[in-house]
Protein backbone atom coordinates (compact mmCIF):
# COMPACT_ATOMS: atom_id res chain seq x y z
CA UNK A 1 0.00 0.00 0.00
CA UNK A 2 1.28 3.47 -0.93
CA UNK A 3 2.39 5.77 1.88
CA UNK A 4 2.30 9.29 0.44
CA UNK A 5 3.67 12.34 2.25
CA UNK A 6 3.00 15.98 1.41
CA UNK A 7 5.98 18.37 1.52
CA UNK A 8 5.79 22.16 1.69
CA UNK A 9 8.74 24.53 1.97
CA UNK A 10 8.09 27.97 3.41
CA UNK A 11 9.49 31.28 4.62
CA UNK A 12 6.86 33.86 5.49
CA UNK A 13 3.50 33.42 3.74
CA UNK A 14 1.86 32.42 7.03
CA UNK A 15 -1.67 33.13 5.79
CA UNK A 16 -1.07 31.02 2.70
CA UNK A 17 0.23 28.17 4.84
CA UNK A 18 -2.72 28.40 7.24
CA UNK A 19 -5.19 28.16 4.35
CA UNK A 20 -3.24 25.33 2.76
CA UNK A 21 -3.34 23.37 6.01
CA UNK A 22 -7.12 23.80 6.18
CA UNK A 23 -7.36 22.20 2.74
CA UNK A 24 -4.89 19.44 3.59
CA UNK A 25 -7.15 18.53 6.49
CA UNK A 26 -10.00 18.00 3.98
CA UNK A 27 -8.15 15.55 1.72
CA UNK A 28 -10.19 12.50 0.77
CA UNK A 29 -7.01 10.43 1.13
CA UNK A 30 -4.92 12.30 3.71
CA UNK A 31 -1.13 12.23 3.52
CA UNK A 32 0.66 10.04 6.05
CA UNK A 33 2.33 13.26 7.15
CA UNK A 34 2.65 16.89 6.11
CA UNK A 35 6.35 17.68 6.19
CA UNK A 36 6.78 21.46 6.45
CA UNK A 37 10.29 22.80 5.92
CA UNK A 38 10.87 26.21 7.49
CA UNK A 39 13.61 28.18 5.79
CA UNK A 40 14.77 30.26 8.73
CA UNK A 41 11.28 31.27 9.87
CA UNK A 42 10.60 30.53 13.56
CA UNK A 43 7.00 31.71 13.19
CA UNK A 44 6.04 28.62 11.19
CA UNK A 45 5.70 26.53 14.34
CA UNK A 46 2.81 28.71 15.51
CA UNK A 47 0.97 28.28 12.20
CA UNK A 48 1.28 24.49 12.43
CA UNK A 49 -0.12 24.48 15.97
CA UNK A 50 -3.42 25.82 14.61
CA UNK A 51 -4.13 22.38 13.11
CA UNK A 52 -2.95 19.96 15.83
CA UNK A 53 -5.01 17.10 14.41
CA UNK A 54 -2.96 16.98 11.20
CA UNK A 55 -0.04 14.54 11.19
CA UNK A 56 2.80 17.02 10.76
CA UNK A 57 6.57 17.08 10.93
CA UNK A 58 8.49 20.36 11.03
CA UNK A 59 12.01 20.58 9.61
CA UNK A 60 13.76 23.82 10.54
CA UNK A 61 16.64 25.14 8.44
CA UNK A 62 18.78 28.02 9.70
CA UNK A 63 18.33 31.55 8.33
CA UNK A 64 20.23 32.30 5.12
CA UNK A 65 20.85 35.37 2.99
CA UNK A 66 19.03 33.72 0.07
CA UNK A 67 16.38 31.02 0.34
CA UNK A 68 17.84 27.51 -0.04
CA UNK A 69 14.94 26.20 -2.10
CA UNK A 70 16.74 23.13 -3.47
CA UNK A 71 18.18 22.15 -0.10
CA UNK A 72 14.79 22.63 1.58
CA UNK A 73 13.06 20.28 -0.84
CA UNK A 74 15.76 17.67 -0.33
CA UNK A 75 15.41 18.00 3.44
CA UNK A 76 11.66 17.55 3.18
CA UNK A 77 11.90 14.40 1.07
CA UNK A 78 14.60 12.96 3.34
CA UNK A 79 12.39 13.49 6.37
CA UNK A 80 9.35 12.00 4.64
CA UNK A 81 11.37 8.90 3.78
CA UNK A 82 12.54 8.60 7.40
CA UNK A 83 8.88 8.66 8.44
CA UNK A 84 8.06 5.75 6.11
CA UNK A 85 6.79 7.48 2.95
CA UNK A 86 7.44 5.78 -0.40
CA UNK A 87 5.74 8.55 -2.38
CA UNK A 88 6.21 12.31 -2.05
CA UNK A 89 4.02 15.18 -3.20
CA UNK A 90 5.68 18.60 -3.35
CA UNK A 91 3.26 21.52 -3.07
CA UNK A 92 4.32 25.15 -2.79
CA UNK A 93 2.96 27.11 0.16
CA UNK A 94 0.97 29.32 -2.25
CA UNK A 95 -1.17 26.38 -3.32
CA UNK A 96 -4.45 24.97 -2.03
CA UNK A 97 -4.89 21.24 -2.77
CA UNK A 98 -8.15 20.04 -4.26
CA UNK A 99 -9.75 17.38 -2.09
CA UNK A 100 -8.57 14.63 -4.45
CA UNK A 101 -5.02 15.91 -4.98
CA UNK A 102 -3.28 13.22 -2.90
CA UNK A 103 -5.51 10.47 -4.29
CA UNK A 104 -5.09 11.60 -7.90
CA UNK A 105 -1.31 11.71 -7.60
CA UNK A 106 -1.17 8.31 -5.91
CA UNK A 107 -3.31 6.64 -8.59
CA UNK A 108 -1.30 8.26 -11.40
CA UNK A 109 2.01 7.03 -10.01
CA UNK A 110 0.55 3.55 -9.56
CA UNK A 111 -0.28 3.57 -13.29
CA UNK A 112 3.33 4.54 -14.02
CA UNK A 113 4.80 2.08 -11.53
CA UNK A 114 6.97 0.37 -14.16
CA UNK A 115 8.94 3.53 -14.94
CA UNK A 116 10.67 6.48 -13.34
CA UNK A 117 8.17 9.31 -13.44
CA UNK A 118 7.34 12.72 -12.05
CA UNK A 119 3.68 13.71 -12.35
CA UNK A 120 2.41 17.30 -12.34
CA UNK A 121 -1.27 18.19 -11.92
CA UNK A 122 -3.42 21.12 -12.95
CA UNK A 123 -2.76 24.57 -11.49
CA UNK A 124 -5.31 27.36 -11.51
CA UNK A 125 -4.45 30.90 -10.46
CA UNK A 126 -6.69 32.84 -8.11
CA UNK A 127 -7.24 36.60 -8.47
CA UNK A 128 -6.45 39.42 -6.09
CA UNK A 129 -9.19 40.56 -3.76
CA UNK A 130 -10.70 37.25 -2.64
CA UNK A 131 -12.15 37.21 0.87
CA UNK A 132 -11.83 34.35 3.35
CA UNK A 133 -15.41 33.36 2.53
CA UNK A 134 -14.38 32.85 -1.13
CA UNK A 135 -11.91 30.08 -0.28
CA UNK A 136 -14.28 27.18 -0.75
CA UNK A 137 -14.02 24.39 -3.34
CA UNK A 138 -16.84 26.01 -5.30
CA UNK A 139 -15.39 29.51 -4.95
CA UNK A 140 -11.89 28.68 -6.16
CA UNK A 141 -13.24 26.55 -9.00
CA UNK A 142 -15.18 29.57 -10.26
CA UNK A 143 -12.34 32.05 -9.79
CA UNK A 144 -9.33 29.99 -10.89
CA UNK A 145 -7.69 30.50 -14.27
CA UNK A 146 -5.29 28.12 -16.00
CA UNK A 147 -1.70 29.05 -16.85
CA UNK A 148 -1.35 29.58 -20.60
CA UNK A 149 1.89 27.58 -20.77
CA UNK A 150 0.61 24.47 -18.97
CA UNK A 151 -0.54 21.31 -20.73
CA UNK A 152 -4.13 20.44 -19.74
CA UNK A 153 -4.99 16.76 -20.27
CA UNK A 154 -8.54 15.50 -20.00
CA UNK A 155 -9.62 14.38 -16.50
CA UNK A 156 -7.64 11.32 -15.46
CA UNK A 157 -5.47 11.40 -18.58
CA UNK A 158 -1.65 11.32 -18.45
CA UNK A 159 0.35 13.07 -21.19
CA UNK A 160 4.13 12.80 -21.36
CA UNK A 161 5.83 16.20 -21.20
CA UNK A 162 9.11 17.95 -21.82
CA UNK A 163 11.32 17.64 -18.69
CA UNK A 164 12.54 21.20 -19.31
CA UNK A 165 9.04 22.31 -18.23
CA UNK A 166 9.25 20.60 -14.82
CA UNK A 167 8.04 22.90 -12.06
CA UNK A 168 7.99 21.87 -8.42
CA UNK A 169 5.06 24.16 -7.63
CA UNK A 170 3.05 20.93 -7.59
CA UNK A 171 4.46 17.52 -8.44
CA UNK A 172 4.61 13.95 -7.21
CA UNK A 173 7.05 11.09 -7.53
CA UNK A 174 8.21 7.98 -5.73
CA UNK A 175 11.13 8.07 -3.33
CA UNK A 176 12.79 5.51 -5.60
CA UNK A 177 12.62 7.88 -8.58
CA UNK A 178 13.78 10.78 -6.40
CA UNK A 179 16.94 8.87 -5.47
CA UNK A 180 17.54 7.80 -9.07
CA UNK A 181 17.54 11.48 -10.08
CA UNK A 182 19.67 12.35 -7.00
CA UNK A 183 17.18 14.98 -5.80
CA UNK A 184 17.72 18.70 -6.27
CA UNK A 185 21.18 20.16 -6.81
CA UNK A 186 21.90 22.20 -3.68
CA UNK A 187 24.39 24.40 -5.50
CA UNK A 188 21.30 26.33 -6.66
CA UNK A 189 20.56 28.97 -4.05
CA UNK A 190 17.92 31.65 -4.35
CA UNK A 191 15.42 31.99 -7.15
CA UNK A 192 15.48 30.19 -10.49
CA UNK A 193 16.91 27.22 -12.32
CA UNK A 194 16.70 24.46 -9.73
CA UNK A 195 13.44 23.02 -11.10
CA UNK A 196 14.73 22.88 -14.68
CA UNK A 197 17.91 21.27 -13.39
CA UNK A 198 15.91 18.59 -11.58
CA UNK A 199 14.03 17.91 -14.82
CA UNK A 200 17.36 17.28 -16.56
CA UNK A 201 18.53 15.05 -13.71
CA UNK A 202 15.27 13.11 -14.03
CA UNK A 203 15.74 12.67 -17.79
CA UNK A 204 19.41 11.69 -17.38
CA UNK A 205 18.33 8.94 -14.96
CA UNK A 206 15.92 7.53 -17.55
CA UNK A 207 12.86 9.20 -16.08
CA UNK A 208 10.09 11.28 -17.60
CA UNK A 209 7.66 14.08 -16.77
CA UNK A 210 3.92 13.51 -17.09
CA UNK A 211 1.07 16.02 -17.05
CA UNK A 212 -2.02 14.78 -15.23
CA UNK A 213 -5.62 15.77 -15.82
CA UNK A 214 -6.36 16.02 -12.10
CA UNK A 215 -4.56 16.64 -8.79
CA UNK A 216 -5.77 20.23 -9.06
CA UNK A 217 -4.12 22.98 -7.02
CA UNK A 218 -5.24 26.58 -6.66
CA UNK A 219 -2.48 29.18 -6.51
CA UNK A 220 -3.24 31.92 -3.98
CA UNK A 221 -2.62 35.45 -5.19
CA UNK A 222 0.46 37.38 -4.15
CA UNK A 223 2.21 40.31 -5.86
CA UNK A 224 4.83 39.36 -8.45
CA UNK A 225 7.14 41.06 -10.91
CA UNK A 226 7.63 39.84 -14.46
CA UNK A 227 10.43 39.54 -15.20
CA UNK A 228 11.48 39.08 -11.54
CA UNK A 229 13.99 41.91 -11.41
CA UNK A 230 14.34 41.56 -7.65
CA UNK A 231 15.89 38.10 -8.19
CA UNK A 232 18.21 39.09 -11.04
CA UNK A 233 21.45 38.22 -9.21
CA UNK A 234 20.26 34.72 -8.33
CA UNK A 235 18.83 34.15 -11.80
CA UNK A 236 22.15 35.07 -13.43
CA UNK A 237 24.20 32.93 -11.03
CA UNK A 238 21.91 29.92 -11.33
CA UNK A 239 21.65 30.25 -15.12
CA UNK A 240 25.44 30.17 -15.38
CA UNK A 241 25.59 27.06 -13.20
CA UNK A 242 22.90 25.40 -15.29
CA UNK A 243 24.65 26.15 -18.61
CA UNK A 244 27.95 24.78 -17.35
CA UNK A 245 26.15 21.62 -16.28
CA UNK A 246 23.77 20.99 -19.19
CA UNK A 247 25.06 23.08 -22.10
CA UNK A 248 22.07 25.37 -22.64
CA UNK A 249 20.33 28.26 -20.90
CA UNK A 250 17.33 27.80 -18.63
CA UNK A 251 14.77 30.57 -18.11
CA UNK A 252 15.43 31.91 -21.61
CA UNK A 253 12.49 34.30 -21.54
CA UNK A 254 13.49 35.91 -18.26
CA UNK A 255 17.16 36.16 -19.24
CA UNK A 256 16.23 37.87 -22.50
CA UNK A 257 13.82 40.28 -20.81
CA UNK A 258 16.29 41.14 -18.05
CA UNK A 259 18.94 41.70 -20.70
CA UNK A 260 16.62 43.99 -22.66
CA UNK A 261 15.95 45.98 -19.49
CA UNK A 262 19.66 46.44 -18.88
CA UNK A 263 19.50 44.53 -15.59
CA UNK A 264 21.62 41.64 -16.88
CA UNK A 265 24.41 41.64 -19.39
CA UNK A 266 26.23 38.78 -21.06
CA UNK A 267 29.98 38.35 -21.43
CA UNK A 268 30.79 35.26 -23.46
CA UNK A 269 28.34 32.61 -22.22
CA UNK A 270 27.98 33.97 -18.68
CA UNK A 271 25.28 36.31 -17.42
CA UNK A 272 26.18 39.13 -15.03
CA UNK A 273 24.18 41.67 -13.05
CA UNK A 274 24.52 45.11 -14.59
CA UNK A 275 22.15 46.75 -12.11
CA UNK A 276 22.14 44.91 -8.79
CA UNK A 277 18.73 43.49 -7.86
CA UNK A 278 17.49 42.67 -4.38
CA UNK A 279 17.46 39.10 -3.12
CA UNK A 280 14.42 39.67 -0.93
CA UNK A 281 11.65 37.09 -1.36
CA UNK A 282 8.67 39.41 -1.73
Describe this structure in words.
With 282 residues, the chain is α/β, with parallel strands linked by helices. The protein folds into two domains: 4-219, Spore Coat Polysaccharide Biosynthesis Protein SpsA, Chain A (Alpha-Beta Complex); 229-273, no CATH class. 32% of the residues lie in helices and 22% in strands. It contains nine helices and 14 strands. The protein has helices at residues 14-24, 44-48, 69-82, 101-111, 137-143, 175-181, 194-204, 232-246, 252-260; strands spanning 4-10, 34-39, 56-61, 87-91, 95-97, 117-120, 123-125, 145-146, 158-161, 170-174, 208-212, 217-219, 264-267, 270-273. Strands 3-2-1-4-10-6-11-9 form an eight-stranded mixed beta sheet, sandwiched between helices. Strands 5-12-7-8 form a four-stranded mixed beta sheet. It has a two-stranded antiparallel ribbon with strand order 13-14. α6 (175-181) packs across α7 (194-204). The chain is globular. The model is unreliable at 276-282 (pLDDT under 50).
CATH class of the largest domain: Alpha Beta
Number of domains: 2
Envelope shape: globular
CATH superfamily (homologous) name of the largest domain? Spore Coat Polysaccharide Biosynthesis Protein SpsA, Chain A
Strand content: 15-25%
Could you spell the SSE succession in H and E letters? EHEHEHEEHEEHEEEHHEEHHEE
Amino acid sequence: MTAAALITIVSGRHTHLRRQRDWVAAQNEPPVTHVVVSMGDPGIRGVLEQRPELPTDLVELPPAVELPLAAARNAGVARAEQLGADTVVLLDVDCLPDGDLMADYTRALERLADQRAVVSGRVQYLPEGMTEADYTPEGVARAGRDHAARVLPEPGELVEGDPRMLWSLTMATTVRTWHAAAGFDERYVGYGGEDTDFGQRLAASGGSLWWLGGAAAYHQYHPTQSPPVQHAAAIARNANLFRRTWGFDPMEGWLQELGNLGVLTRAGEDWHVFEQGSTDDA
